[in-house]
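We treat protein structure as text, and this decision shapes the records that our systems exchange. This encoding replaces a full spatial description with a residue-level series of whole-number codes. Below, we set out a record of this kind in full and without editing:
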Amino acid sequence: AGMVGVWFRDSWGESNRGAGSAQNLCESRISEFSGWCGNVHPSSILMHFNPPPVGPTYPPGSCYFMLRKCLQSVSTNSWFRDTWGELNRNAGMVMLTCIVTRRSEYASWCGVSFENVLMHFNPL
């Protein structure tokens, strides 16, 4: 019976359906799982949305990152200021650089998919 009674992360839904960004998008995946599991009744599928943790709000003009998973020897599940990205990529001044470029760079460096990297930008 495969995955009966087992919680697992919907990485595909996070990457392709935005399921990690909003509760309604997470819960909308129930019907897709119902079909994927052989048309089981939707009431037998439970979805639990875990909102992303709130990032630091200070100082203005800063970029923070949190690694949920990383194949390098670094701390995970804590916010860290991206001082290198601020100095070398202007990540504290340009939101897209912080949120998109640096996220991609961290994911590549860590050897993980981008949903394992959270970014937070504090505008000036």
About this structure: The two ends are 53 Å apart (CA to CA). The first strand starts at residue 62 and ends at 67.
